[in-house]
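User: Good morning. I'm curious how magnesium ion would be positioned relative to this chain. Could you predict the structure with it bound?
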Amino acid sequence: MKEATGASPAMAQWFAIKAQHEDSLLFFRMGDFYELFFADAQAASAALDIALTARGQHQGEPIAMCGVPVSQAETYLARLIRRGFRVAIVEQLEDPAAAKARGAKGPLKRGVVRLVTPGTLTEEALLEAGRANFCAAIVAHEGVFGLAWADISTGQFETEQSGPDGLAAILGRLDPAEILAAEEIPLGAYAARRVETRRMALHLPANAEAAARDLAQRFGAASLDAFGDFSGAEALAASFVLAYIEATQMGATPRLSRPVSAGRAGQLAMDAATRASLELASARGGSEAGSLLGAIKRTVSPAGARLLAHWLTAPLCRLDILQERQRGWLAIADSGQAEAIRTALRGTPDMARALGRITLGRASPRDLAAIRGGLAAAEALRSLLPAGVALLDEAAHALNPAPELLATLRAALAEPAPLRLDEGAAIAPGFDGELDAERALRDDTRRIIAEFQSELAQRYKVASLKIKHHAQLGYVLEAPAGAVEGLRAYPELQLRQGMANGARFTHPELSDLDRRITEAAARAGARERVVFNWLVTQVLAAAEPLAACAAALALADVLQGAAQLYEAGRFCRPALSDDEAYSITAGRHPVVEAALPPGTSFIPNGCTLAPQRLMLLTGPNMAGKSTFLRQNALLVILAQAGLPVPAEAMQLGLVDRLFSRVGASDDLASGRSTFMVEMTETAAILHQAGPKSFVIVDEIGRGTGTRDGLAIAQAVLESLHNQNRCRAIFASHFHELVQLAEALPRLAAHTMRVKEFRGEVVFMHEVVEGAAQKSWGVHVAKLAGVPDPVLRRADALLKTAERQQNATAPLPLFANLPDSAPAPAEPPRPRRCWIN
Ligand code: ADP
Ligand code: MG
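Assistant: Good morning! Here's the predicted structure, ligand included:
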């Protein structure tokens, strides 16, 4: 951008700042507004639907301008950030009155105080309460990728190392708000996503060792080893994300916890497709409703909701940690205190995020109140957590972070605390004598004015003389029409304004009073700021223990939620082990169950993958196959999140990798054909699934011709059986596949039970041993409302085809099998497929 010729000094300042921040909209502070100019104004007025005006001229053209009031800036910022803009906040760096007093010429000093980007938000209005907001950085180093991500609103800071194939899975898990990566890093589908991706090269430390040293220093340790084991790539990524975040905060340092290497935490591996298909924390379209999280969430605080989402999206395969979580919620359920814990936590303010803003120097009275509220909840909670479980004992210990602080905040902070400090009522009366004295002077105004009014009324012998405050004139005397002439005789009274029924006068003593009152208000404000800042330092001194306390509150909330599920009696504690057990009694799909219309009930189904580890599930469309598959995968997720599961009983040998290949036709956005997507995902399973893995495959081969599809389905099934040897459920509407069960010893054939009653077909949603009789396609078409003539025609065609098929040679695929399986004399007796 070129420097303006002949522009106003403030505009010259604008140009200079814009040149430094070309990729951001400048929120240029002018008094009570943030103003935007030129292209910024055009973009913002369109995005915010606010009026575009013009101001002055630049190179003969009017300068486009729009503005937002400072008091409402957060709302507008939120909208701009959501639309993918970055915003640089330019503040006035000096007090206008002070500048005027020292006789300064030219514009006020201004500078960028902060860059607002999607990954560096701290304001409640800009954040989703129940979701972490990560800024993630990816670097390539010695043939691997290092990732690091931080949420500056809560201080969470983690790293992980990955090969090229693992990137998408990690990003899928984190769902970062902003990704920093150099051009050459393959982001795959993520590059095209809604998420803000910054392709940038930053000045990194010369090498991984230097990065590790910088990091250690930043967190006050001699060496990074003090925090655990980090690869060079992780150290580089961590310093990358840290450097970026600090650059956006213009020198203010966010509180971040020491980095943790998430890759070493023993997570259950899931690729991006699996994750998306299971809808763990958000359903299709991004909403929480309809997701697993939405169905099982019983938390009562935003921090609890975030932690629960984290557990669900990052399940573990660590027996010790999972059993400890189970012991935690079982102890709460057994103690009978779950309801009391819930009451203590309900409405707990978001202490972690308030702490984030306080550390960045953006504390509002509400943030201090959030700390007070969090500490009060912690105090109430301490005696409620049952003792004897290490996880709960640690939490209880963390719930007492700063013994004096709660009392101080209770005494010092007004209740309720005002939104902003400049409202002048943040500090409670009685806490600071000096402040009380200044306020008395300020608040005494009314009495002083009243006394002065009667004094003047007597002095000028006008009983109805009134002192009023006027926006432009300050304090004035208002006299009725009849008294105006008489008052004009007094030289000290100056007529300023005539009115219909009288006139307004100014008076030197009144002006003096006005000044004293204003000064008292200013002095009270200044003293209040001093006290407030002192409180902030008290909080900052305890920042680490407070962060631990916030984490303990979140943990207690998640555990009480789990206890609640368990206590309601329809969720059980899964028995976890390190072997390859898999047995579920009467399992349910929590999301489908929650969505069933009233009056219908969910039909529970068990599933045992032993001795046969592979289940083939056939059955017509709409019979409940997909529901059953996902239900089993979701129970694995819940169990490995350490939570109770919707079943009567569950034995699970921990799964190392979970694969879900369900629902073709979802991925139209990526431009790959349904079949291509299906095969890519299938290839991933065949390459990676091992004996400890768990796989669900739904309707493979649907995206291509029948013969192709059937052939591929059979080959995949054989490979899962012979090579991968994983636990798997394989659903297909190709009932021809059932005959494979005879050839494959570890394959058990099951089907969805269907009842035929007086020509009507009823889907029982029940998994039974055996094979599907037919595909009932015409029946499903009828359910869907296809017109009768079409149904009759389809039926006739079907009969002809069946006759012809019997007459011609069998499909080559099953050349060694009978043409048509003889129908059993009786329908198979319905049996649950689990064995007690
Ligand atoms: P399929 O994959 O066999 O075509 P779905 O799993 O999509 O069938 O199920 C179709 C519908 O049947 C679901 O949307 C749900 O409403 C209902 N359903 C499935 N399983 C059950 C069950 N176990 N109990 C009750 N209703 C079920
Ligand atoms: Mg299905």
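The two ends are 76 Å apart (CA to CA). Confidence is low (pLDDT under 50) at residues 1-6, 664-669, 807-836.
Let me know if you'd like a different ligand tried.
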